[in-house]
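# step 3/5: fold
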Amino acid sequence: METLEAELANFSITLNILTISGLAFLLALTSETLWDVIRGHRKNLGETFVNASIGIVTALLERTFYSLIFVFGLWLATPFALLQIPNAWWVLPLAIFAADFTYYWMHRIEHETRILWANHSVHHSSPEYNFTTALRISWVDSLVEWVFFLPMILLGFSLAQTVTGLFVVLAYQSWVHTEKPGKLGWLDRVFNTPSVHRVHHGTNAQYIDKNYGGILIIWDRIFGTYEPEREKVVYGITTPVNTINPLKVVFIEYRNIWRDLKKARSGREALGYLFRRPGWRPGKPRK
């Protein structure tokens, strides 16, 4: 079994590669923003400011404190692995495939569990949709998301293989946050594409809680959560945040949960406000 030092070294190499990819995405983001401003498609830059502000803090946290938590948390589980998958060339595609499957379920659970939605809703709360939306990630996400990838470690993937697989899945999604390309034919039925992901960010009734996939959209087709783009997407969340204050954007749903918890008449109701679907209320019929 590789030592923690070796795993951290591999993790550092992966991070450096993704940093280069991140710089390329930053160039694309800047180009899209300038193009939109020049063409008059983005007259109010408030949302762009919020996205960039949140993204900068997220990047600083994930490259320091949060990375240590993520890596150390997964490393602690390595002695309990049921198998030991070899460090061979064919493992990386397998790790990406496994991470993509894991990401689908993590993403779906984040939508279906309110306390996790409090984090993930930050990403959905912008009424605009462009490359800067990819930066709008909660400052709390990485504190909890590593837990979902413990099964990969327990199945025998190494820490480096698991983290690399996840990073590839996350890096892939940067380019889908744009309205520039239209539909891409058969690609929309196999992969997460701009059209597919626009649906995921929609508040249109038929678009809510659809298209969770990271790279492959086949998981949504298998598990019944796929929806093609049929009508113009209305972006945001059903209860808009109506603010460009980054602190409020990141923590507003926690405030809403606290208000509901104070109204709880029993421990069961309190747990319902925390762990049931967003929008749950005592006595409210299930959809």
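# step 4/5: annotate
The first helix runs from residue 4 to 39.
# step 5/5: archive (pending)
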